[in-house]
Write a structure and sequence with these properties.
Layout lengths: L3 E7 L14 H18 L3 E6 L11 H4 L4 E5 L11 H15 L8 E6 L3 E2 L2 H9 L6 E3 L12 E5 H8 L14 H14 L4 E3 L6 E2 L14 H29 L2
Parallel strand pairs: 1-2, 1-4, 2-3, 6-8
Antiparallel strand pairs: 4-7, 5-9
Helix pairs in contact: 3-5
Amino acid sequence: MNDIVILLTCTINVKGMTFTALTDVQVREKHYLEAIEYYFNRTKVKIVIVENTGHDFFRSLDGKLLHSKRLEILSFNGNNFPKELGKGYGELEAISYAMNNSKFISADTSIIKVTGRYKVSNIQTFIKDVSTSSSDLCQFLYFKGHKAAFSGIFIASRFFLKNVLEKNHQLMDDSKGVYFEHILARSIIDYRFAGGNYKMLKSFPRLIGISGTDNKQHPTNKLVFWLVRNFIYKALKTSYSILEIITLRFFYN
């Protein structure tokens, strides 16, 4: 199995962040703790927790997790930027901190980035797929030509996160309608233009949890909703891939 890490990005105290309905510190901590325990119990891979408001997870986590060699906790006092830039700006800040400080993440690590309060119930699908793929092959829920890519979960190399995504960090500004999803899409295009390869996520992710943006259950909490969305996604993904192969073969050779 390739070296795989689940990177959970966390913000306990949103400090008046724009477009964030869920602000209760205790509730947010509870959601993060549940997600950490979920991935610890449901997977065998290493887990990196990066929190950007200086929160102390050590006082709340179960002892078996704290003493496990699979868990790395990083916390720093970030989230002090102008709040109109948005929570995505802070998440990118956290990702950058993890790239520079994690002992678990190396150049050969496949990083499954997950927004920390979500439990991805089909996480094993992605771990299994990554374990048989090239360690530097990124994976996204992104259709070429679109202005946005899904940022709740994606798979990337350290090179992509540090040398491509991080360079576009300063372009993010929620007040101008430029969100993390737009910056991620831009970075994927930049990566591909520079010769990098990626593929689409194996399946549509099923996210269990509360959205911090609107304080509502994520739609994929409902199994039927996810099953329909996953079926459509796989059909479109396959058709899109075939069309791309045909286009490249007959129009660019």
